[in-house]
Amino acid sequence: MRRFASLFLWVGFLVGISLMVSCRHSAAKDSGSQEAVRQTFVPTFNADSSFAYIERQVAFGPRVPNTAAHREASAFLSAELRRHGAQVTLQEFQATAYDGTLLEACNIIASFFPEKSHRILLFAHWDSRPYADNDPQPQNHRTPIDGANDGASGVAVLLEIARQIQAHAPKVGVDIFFFDVEDYGKPYFSTSPDRGDTWALGAQYWANNPHDLAYRADYGILLDMVGGKGSRFAKEGFSLRQAPNIVDKVWNAARVLGYGDYFVDMRGGFIDDDHIYVGRRVPSIDIIAYDEENGFVPQWHTLDDTMEYIDKAVLEAVGQTLLWVIYNE
Ligand code: AHN
Ligand code: ZN
Question: Which residues neighbour ligand 2 (ion) by CB within 5 Å?
């Protein structure tokens, strides 16, 4: 018996060693789902690193088009992506805002392993809103916001993922797009005549003028407001229409990894966001903190969308789930 016991220990030890090559996150915490248990290496998402990437962006000031902060931030973001080994294309264009203002805009397009034909597109908006028009204080409604959550959080999670991709190549190709002028939509106080959809102007521009006419990806995932305290991600309406299998893939991965309290099994609302326009070329979903019960987080489009309301546990839930999905393709 003793000999058997020690043999067992040895076998267990060897299996343990071989599993150490794979990440702790590939193990299912939830025994209810077998599907997600695969023996593949998944890097560990570093929430501190993504948090610091939010701080770096916020430190420029509000990234509102036609400002120095906006120009400086775009230089930083493209340099950071290049530093992590991506091929970066800057798509510069002029956008016309809801009130006719011409905005100097730039979509930042990064490609990892451009030779690979199976690809995942990850995207976020990098601009921040010029108006805190949901602030409890009406005198703040024309003041630009930090956008720590609304804008910077999605970019920060993707920069950390870029860093991980450089350290360990996944099997699939990955593209990271940072869209500009998502958040210059018509404020409630404007009396300008309607111009169609005044949100997501960068994604609209790209959908009409792709940087590469032959560009293909298997599917796309948008991250929008993925770092706010108290965030819950319901399954957004257009995402369920455009790519229900990708919604399932992501929400199942989150549940198996133990993040089911963030990625809730609920239908969300229909959100006008970048994924609608990207979806004309690549079937895409939106991971966005919104549910029918509470709406957006209370700091949304207020002067409180600051570092103070960023929660590393939320960044980790989203970042680790995405890494799991990427490295299991
Ligand atoms: C509207 O409120 C129309 N769309 C939400 C998209 C958005 C704004 N995402 C971030 N800020
Ligand atoms: Zn916004």
Answer: 129, 150, 183
